[in-house]
Structure prediction request, 390 residues.
Amino acid sequence: MLISLQVKRLAVILCSLMVLSLTGCWNYREVEKVTTVAGIAIDKGDKDGEIQLTVEVVDGSGGEDVLNVGSNRITLTGKTMFDVVRKMITQSGRRLYWAHAKSIILSQDIAREGSARIIDWYVRDTETRADIHILVSGEKTAEAVLRNDGGLNAPLSFKIDEMLKNEKSLSNAPVMEIFDFADTVNTPGISSVLPMIYLTEHDKHTTASVQGMAVFDRDRMLGTIHADDTKYALFLRDEIKGGILTLGDYNHPPGISLEIFKNKTKVKPVLVDGQIEIRVKTQTVTVLDEAQFNGVDYIAPKGREEIEKLAEDMLVKKMENVIHIAQTQYHQDIFGFGDRIHKKMPKLWKTLVADWDERFSKLKVTVESDVVIRGTASTKKPLKMEEEDE
Prediction:
C-alpha cells in the first residue's frame, strides 16, 4: 500500500513538471513587438573603418504565403555589426528578429578584406541561426542586389532561398550555409568557396541570378570561377545532385543533352615513387533528353556507347581545365584533395600541410570518367555506384 502511494505521488510530480515544460518557447516574443529579418547585405561604409548593413524585413501584410508578403529595406552604417544592429531599432521602431533570415550577401570588397570579422557576430549571436545561406555579390555592392525585387515587392531573400534549394537541378553554383563556410575556413586541406549572385535582365525586369562561385584563401576572397567551370568543380567536390551535360550545340553536332540522374565521385590519394598523386573517378548516370543530330542511332548499343564516350571525354577535359584554373590562377585546393589525404594518410599529411598551397599547385591529378545513359532499349538498370573506401 505504501509503495502504491509513493508511485502515485511520483506520477503527480512528473505530470506537474511536464505541464511546466509545455508553457511555451524560452525566447518567445509577441509578433507585434519584433520586426522579422528576411535577408542581409553587408558592404563597406563610406567612411574609413565603417561597415554598411542593409536588412530586408517583412511586414506580413501579404497573408500566410511567405513568398507574397510585403518587404522593406533598412540601411545603416556603423563601426561594428552589433553597433549597426542596435541602431536599426531607431529605424524599425522594434527589435529585429533574426531567426527566420534566409541569406547573407557579402560585397566583394568585404569578402576580399576578410569575411570572418563580419560573420563572427552572426555565428556568435544567440538569436541567429547557423543554417542561413551566404553568397557574394557579383554587382558593385551587396545592397544593390538586396534592394532589387524584380518589381514584385516580394522578399528577395525568400526567392534566393528557393533558388538555392533548386540549385541541385542546375549545378551552376555551390550551396553554402554560414556554419559550413566557417567550418571550411578553419579546415586545412580544403579552400572555401561561396556562390555568386548577380542581377540579370529578364522580360524587361531586373532579377537575381545565382551562378558561378567565389574562391577564398581562408576567409579572403581571391576571385571568381565562371558558372560553366563551376559545374565541373562541383563534380570534383562530389557535390553534383543533378544538372545537364551538353555535347555540341544547335549549330555544331551532335547537339545532345544528357540529364544527370546521379553521380558519385571517388578521390583516391596514392604514392608513386614517393610522390603523392590524386586519382579521381566520376561515375555518372544520365538520361538522354535531347538529340538534335540524327547521324547516330543512340538507341542501338553502338550509338549509345559513342555518345557515352563523347560525354566521358568532355567531362575529363572540363574537370582537367578547372583543376588547372585552381592550381595556376588561385593556388587553392577548392576540391578538398588535401582533406582526403588527411583522412587516408594522416601521417603523410603532417609533412604536407605546412605548405599545402604550393604543393597543391604542382600536384599531379589523374581524372577518369564513366558515363552511362539510362533508359534505352539496351540499358534498363541504373549503374551501380562503386562504394568509396573509408
Q: What stands out?
A: Confidence is low (pLDDT under 50) at residues 20-31, 61-66, 377-383. The CA atoms of residues 51 and 319 lie 38 Å apart.
